[in-house]
Amino acid sequence: MTETIAVIAAGAMGSAVGRRLSANGATVLTSLAGRGEASRARATAAGMIDADDRTIAENASLILSIVPPADAKALAARFAPLIGRSGAPAFVDCNAVGTETMAAIAETLGETGARCIDGAIIGFPPKDGERGPAFYFSGAAANDAAVLGDLGLDVRIVDGPIGAASALKLSYAGITKGLVAIAAAMILAADRAGAGPALHAELAASQPQLLTRFEKTLPDMYGKAYRWVEEMHAIADFVGADYPESSFYRGAARLYERIASEDLGPGEKAVMDRFLGRS
């Protein structure tokens, strides 16, 4: 029997996940209501099938929510009553949300009797010939997502409640994306002080692995900075207001917001590109 999985939405990650599932024999549904031509093209290329919410709730065994963190609660609320009536799919939140937000999503779904799985994606969108990214799942219904392992995804079950997978994602992103924020902040500060070339030379001499990492991670960040703002705030909340280091992530959020800004971002991106030898 063909497994039917819903992936919402058909962004860069969602469409790549849909392609991987479809290539491994699943029927992949998605919702393209209100989506632009780029999303529709990605969905078509990935073999995803446009369907309305009721059709998704009545036919999918799992609904994977892969949306910007700020949209996660609204999507869960949208599907909660439909899932509660159909009783079929488990709702899997795969977004980089805070543990409190994840708890609220689980509560919204639980009020209608819907099953909720806390999910976290660590890594880049799936590519042909590569196993990743890793999909972590936690909560009482986490094992229901194990079927995704038979459909080409790298599934890892976390032995913990709702919130455990999200906590793992926040911790990991706090390190990796926090490091990107540190690099961007120091490159920009060095450039303002006229020390950019000297900083590059010192990194090349004493920290070549870091410099190689920055050559990949900083340019990759440009188009994602707007999505990382909410994630940095979620990480700050996760660290806790009682701990002064949480303010670092508030600052990182403001940095990413500025880089994403049409007014300020292009100039700062040019500075980083020049530092990295991209221009």
Helix residue percentage = 40-55%
Structural class: alpha/beta
Biggest sheet: strand arrangement: 3-2-1-4-5-6-7-8
Number of helices: 11
CATH architecture of the largest domain: 3-Layer(aba) Sandwich
Could you describe the largest sheet, including whether it forms a barrel? Answer: 8 strands, mixed
Radius of gyration: 20 Å
Poorly predicted sequence stretches spanning 5 or more consecutive residues: none
CATH topology of the largest domain: Rossmann fold
Gross morphology: globular
Number of domains: 2
CATH superfamily of the largest domain: NAD(P)-binding Rossmann-like Domain
In CATH, what is the class of the largest domain?
Alpha Beta
- Average pLDDT metric: 95
How many runs of DSSP E, i.e. beta strands? 8
Query: How far apart are the first and last residues' alpha carbons, in Å?
Result: 53 Å
**Helix-strand topology string:** EHEHEHEHEHEEEHHHHHH
Strand content: 5-15%
What does this structure look like?
This protein is 54% helix and 13% strand. With 279 residues, the chain is of the alpha/beta class. It folds into 2 domains: 4-161, Rossmann fold; 167-275. An 8-stranded mixed sheet has the order 3-2-1-4-5-6-7-8, with helices on both faces. Helix 2 links the parallel strand 2 (27-30) and strand 3 (49-50). Helix 1 (12-23) runs parallel beside helix 2, helix 3 (53-59) crosses helix 4 and helix 7 (196-206) crosses helix 8. The longest helix has 29 residues, at 164-192.
